[in-house]
Amino acid sequence: MKGICILGATGSIGVSTLDVVARHPDLYKVVALTANGNIDVLFQQCLVHHPEYAVVASEHRADEFRQRIAASTVADIKVLSGSEALQQVATLDTVDSVMAAIVGAAGLLPTLAAAKAGKTILLANKEALVMSGQIFLKAVKDSGAVLLPIDSEHNAIFQCMPAGYATGQQARQARRILLTASGGPFRRTPVEELINVTPEQAIAHPKWDMGRKISVDSATMMNKGLELIEACLLFNMQPDDIQVVIHPQSIIHSMVDYVDGSVLAQMGNPDMRTPIAYAMAWPERFDSGVAPLNIFEVGRMDFEQPDLQRFPCLKLAYQAIKSGGVMPTILNAANEVAVEAFLAEQIRFTDIAKIIEQSMAQFSAEQADTLEAVLQADQQARDIAKTVITHLAV
Ligand code: NAD
Ligand code: MG
Asked: Which of 23, 51, 136, 180 is the most exposed place for a label (fewest CB within 10 A)?
């Protein structure tokens, strides 16, 4: 029986994780659930899954949540609040696995704490890895933690790696990764119309049902840019050995090209419960609740090169990983600020790439060897991106 802590339990990945957990009550016990401010969903999850701990990261909703738990049938749940509590529950002795499913940089410290504590980390929160890079991988290595990718592409690549492969290693006979992308909702939209895209249009993804931030990232293809960096780190590959492939049907979730010419692909319906269940059962497999793939319904699969004019964010991500140092941190931070401004209707869709590019231009690619340096670069990039936005607005 394994204890699981779900960071970001109320989000899209968190909810899918609980769906898988509920199918395997003999194998998993929910030890801790965390949310930012969505206390209604967290409360329902507490009633169903009865964790030992529930964390409300946002302080101003915590008291109300505490009162609701106290008056409920699950009044023995320990309620904690604030961002420090996330690290506390991610490192509990009773926790074996930590699902890192907080969105954005807010997930870094608890995920890193879990890594240092030697937990099995089910990593959905790609921003945490992108911003901290080698620091994160070193923490995993030093503690003997196990790092399993949840992002569907990286989970697919991991599944296609040789037996016994561990993340961070170089798989010598694997010469290339083919990283698939759906192309998002604007793959065919005339480029000159992208300036008028609304948040509602951007978050309506054709194949995946996800949180708002990652949905916008998919529409700009910054999601693939972050995933490119994520893949370089997880699989110890050079950016030029990773080919982004637009595959609109989203049935192949990525491929590994071996030196003998074999190309291994992992396929399945686009449902995050498959990679979640794979990582939870690893190195075994168990039921995820996902329907079997109907290959006749799929019918055909298409593949295209991404257009970097249409998707400048992808080009910026290649630049960031090639420059190295703090650049991936800067890219990620500026993107988070820009996406938030876009969702708040303060900027246009096409401004997102401009803000990131202008923010990156203000930094040189110096090394960031310490967590403090990473956090400082992250904060500076956020401040700069906000200044860029004020100049855009006038
Ligand atoms: P979401 O917006 O649906 O959920 C985010 C979760 O994080 C919520 O539980 C929220 O309460 C919590 N959260 C947000 N801000 C927080 C803060 N400041 N402090 C503490 N908690 C906070 O997002 P999602 O779609 O579930 O994505 C989560 C992560 O997984 C992202 O990094 C995303 O890139 C990655 N991912 C998601 C999918 C998907 O299908 N949704 C696929 C691959 C990777
Ligand atoms: Mg993905």
From this structure: 23
